[in-house]
């Protein structure tokens, strides 16, 4: 009993703040019988139900009880009292209040636009994958047959890389390697791939079809321990160091069917995007982009 009372008191003590914050959100419907009235303000059963659903997960069990619902109703009544008082104080005319509301509206508009665009993108992808970008079973079988050696005698390659955003930076990194700096040191200091830079550029072992073709082909052509020249891919400019390779067991068509399908559909998508970019026209202002690199990171 003591625990329940304490929990209730805690809910009341923090409830006003929670309620005031959530009141900025879209309310549930205001139809139905009136549960309580504070001056001219009414709290309907639908309003109460909606606000109960919005209560934090930690309180859902508590507000499901009669005591919890009554406690929550008291919270809403307190809100109405404070709202009534705010009118008398002229809060809505306060510049700080108006500025906060305008900022909230701008943020809400931005989030809505982002949600709409995300939903449009996801819907477009689903339709494209169902038609233009789909890889058929025949496509998969043909690829397996055309690349039989890659699956009957698959090779797993271990390699490290240094990723740079420009060819000039890649040449600088390559010059450092030729001058005697270790690959690991240059990767840690220059690579734009944060996931591998901290490990001296080391990648997870990969097989054919796991990475972009330009990278895979360049890595496969190297001898163990050899460092490549500059390799350009859609991600930037790479310098690759081959660490080693090993033979893996043969893989049947059934085993790799979905892996091949995913790879073919990825390639189709990349080709489709490239074609659309050529049609639509894409312009990047490199000077403006360079400003991002020049800006200091926000201080904590």
| Tally of helical runs | 13
**Broad shape:** elongated
Ends apart, CA distance between termini: 45 Å
Q: Biggest β-sheet, characterized? A: 3 strands, antiparallel
Total strand segments: 5
Strand content: 5-15%
Describe this protein with a few key phrases.
5 strands, disordered N terminus, alpha+beta, two-stranded antiparallel sheet, 3-stranded antiparallel β-sheet, 13 helices, 300 residues, 3 domains, disordered C terminus, elongated, Chitinase A, domain 3
Write a compact overview of the structure shown:
By secondary structure, the protein is of the alpha+beta class. It is built from 13 helices and five strands. Helix 1 runs parallel beside helix 4 and helix 6 packs across helix 12.
Summarize the structure in words:
The chain has 300 residues and is α+β, with helices and mostly antiparallel strands. The chain has 3 domains: 2-92, no CATH class; 94-130; 155-248, Chitinase A, domain 3 (Roll), CATH 3.10.50.40. Helix content is 60%, strand content 13%. The chain has helices at residues 2-22, 45-54, 60-63, 66-89, 95-130, 137-146, 148-152, 167-178, 183-190, 194-197, 213-221, 253-280, 286-294; strands spanning 34-38, 41-44, 155-164, 227-233, 236-247. The strands form 2 sheets. Strands 3-5-4 form a 3-stranded antiparallel beta sheet. The protein has a two-stranded antiparallel sheet with strand order 1-2.
């Amino acid at each position: 009993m003591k625990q329940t009372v304490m929990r209730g008191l805690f809910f009341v003590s923090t409830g006003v703040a929670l309620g005031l914050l959530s009141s900025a959100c879209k309310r549930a419907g205001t139809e139905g019988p009136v549960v309580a009235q504070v001056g001219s303000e009414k709290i309907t059963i639908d309003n109460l139900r909606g606000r109960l659903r919005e209560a934090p997960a930690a309180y859902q069990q508590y507000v499901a009880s009669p005591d919890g619902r009554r406690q929550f109703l008291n919270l809403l009544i307190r809100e109405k009292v404070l709202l009534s008082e705010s009118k008398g104080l002229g809060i809505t005319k306060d510049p700080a209040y108006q500025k906060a509301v305008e900022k909230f509206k701008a943020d809400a508009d931005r989030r809505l636009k982002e949600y709409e665009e995300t939903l449009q993108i996801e819907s477009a992808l689903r339709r494209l994958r169902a038609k233009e970008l789909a890889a058929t079973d025949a496509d998969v079988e043909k690829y397996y047959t055309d690349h039989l050696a890659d699956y009957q005698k698959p090779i797993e390659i271990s390699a490290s890389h240094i990723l740079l955003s420009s060819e000039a930076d890649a040449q600088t990194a390559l010059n450092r390697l030729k001058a005697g700096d270790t690959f690991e040191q240059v990767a840690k200091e220059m690579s734009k791939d944060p996931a591998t830079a901290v490990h001296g550029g080391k990648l997870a072992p990969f097989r054919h079809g796991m990475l972009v073709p330009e990278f895979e082909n360049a890595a496969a052509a190297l001898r163990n321990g050899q460092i490549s020249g500059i390799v350009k891919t859609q991600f930037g400019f790479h310098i690759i160091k081959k660490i080693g390779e090993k033979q893996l067991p043969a893989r049947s068509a059934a085993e790799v069917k979905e892996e091949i399908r995913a790879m073919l559909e990825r390639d189709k998508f990349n080709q489709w995007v490239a074609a659309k970019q050529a049609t639509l026209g894409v312009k990047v202002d490199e000077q403006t982009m360079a400003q991002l690199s020049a800006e200091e990171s926000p201080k904590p």
